[in-house]
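Figure 3 (text version): structure tokens given as input.
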């Protein structure tokens, strides 16, 4: 059995993972997120407020999501790369602590599978 730290998998996850606290301060970026955000500062963004990185109308939407602890899912396309983005609140011991964003490149169409109960 391979020994690993609790969050080793996060660094090599194929999508970007960004974690912020309830005020919007960036706490963690995995390797892919650092690469994706290199032009904005990459790893230097840790400790900064993600609200400062978003223009309107995204800023207004993000503030609303944080205030009401809402999840947001969308796809985005930059150049020839399409990504699915999941922004969702995270909790510790039932208490709201902030947001996690997972951004993952997708290829082709995303199938919709309907499962019966």
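Below: residues designed for each position.
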């Amino acid at each position: 059995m391979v020994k690993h730290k609790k969050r080793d998998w996060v660094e090599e996850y194929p999508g970007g993972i960004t974690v912020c606290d309830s005020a919007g301060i960036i706490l963690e970026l995995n390797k892919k997120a650092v690469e994706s955000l290199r032009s904005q500062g990459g790893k230097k963004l840790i400790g900064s407020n993600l609200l400062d990185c978003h223009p309107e109308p995204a800023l207004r939407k993000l503030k609303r999501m944080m205030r009401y602890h809402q999840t947001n899912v969308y796809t985005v396309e930059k150049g020839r790369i399409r990504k699915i983005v999941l922004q969702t609140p995270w909790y510790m011991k039932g208490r709201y602590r902030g947001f996690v964003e997972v951004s993952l490149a997708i290829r082709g169409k995303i199938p919709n599978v309907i499962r019966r109960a």
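Helices lie at 8-12, 31-36, 58-68.
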